Amino acid sequence: MPAEAVEIARKRLALAAEDLDGNRVAALVGELADGWGVPALWEQVCVPALAALRGHTAIEVAVEHALSEGVRVGLDVFRRVPGRPLPTGGVLLAGAEQETHCLGLHALSAALRERTRGSLLLGPALPWAALSGAVRRARPRTVVVWAQTPVTGRAYRLVRFARDFPAVRVYGAGPGWIEPLAAPAARLSTLPAAVRACCSAPPPH
Predict the structure, then answer these.
(1) Which is nearest to 96 in space by CA: 86, 104, 87?
(2) Which of 46, 52, 80, 113 has its CA 20 to 30 A from that of 58?
(3) Residue 81: count of CB within 10 angstroms of its CB
(4) Largest CA distance in the chain
(5) Domain that holds residue 47
(6) Is 193 helix (H, G, I), strand (E, B) or coil?
């Protein structure tokens, strides 16, 4: 996105959030995603806008919630056709155990739909045992686990999970994975990299 367009987009999102207008935030997210694509929207507009909100006061917390919820809704409805879900494409997305924030996975899911690829998004705070059960049930080819903070980004746990499922490609995404990830697990540091990783594996037969 051009620098001027990025600045205008951030201001529009910020103003909508300051008005606590989550619906307007969601509409802006859809409009910008249509115009510039989900990866550019997420990395150049949404992430900086969310990072700029410190949440030091009660009203700042409310504004942050309005922004994050509006972004989530806007991403979730993007390129989604009611009654015509895309196949999951062998991709399973989940927040790490006790991780309550996983907006990045909503961005990844939207970016995959932009490429007419589906995913199975199980949301935040999925216990490791539940994730293992989901993998046995859904039999994905690729699993992406989101961690927002080092408290939930436990590298040893992700590596152990990856070794339990050698036929599955396992990735850690989000800023919480600060420790090195040993093989067979790997870290995805950008949304475009995550999209490529999820799209490179053929869907299960």
Answers:
(1) 104
(2) 46
(3) 8
(4) 51
(5) 3-77
(6) helix
What are 67's two structure tokens? 């922004």
Lowest average pLDDT, out of 29-38, 47-56, 116-125, 182-191, goes to: 47-56
CB atoms within 10 A of CB 120: 18
For residue 27 the two structure tokens come to 């509409």
Does residue 73 sit in the same domain as residue 165?
Answer: no
Q: Which of 174, 194, 198, 170 is nearest to 184 (CA)?
A: 170
Whole-Å CA distances, 160 to 6, 101, 170: 40, 22, 10
Q: What mean pLDDT do residues 57-71 have? A: 94
The tokens describing 24, both together, are: 């307007």
What's the pTM value of the predicted model, to 2 decimals? Answer: 0.93
Q: 188 and 102 in one domain?
A: yes
Q: CA dihedral in degrees (70, 199, 94, 36; nearest 10)?
A: -10
Owner of token pair 């490529």? 196
User: What is d(CA 14, CA 95) in angstroms, rounded to the nearest whole number?
Assistant: 26
Q: What is the mean pLDDT of residues 140-150?
A: 96
Lowest mean pLDDT among 44-58, 73-87, 128-142: 73-87
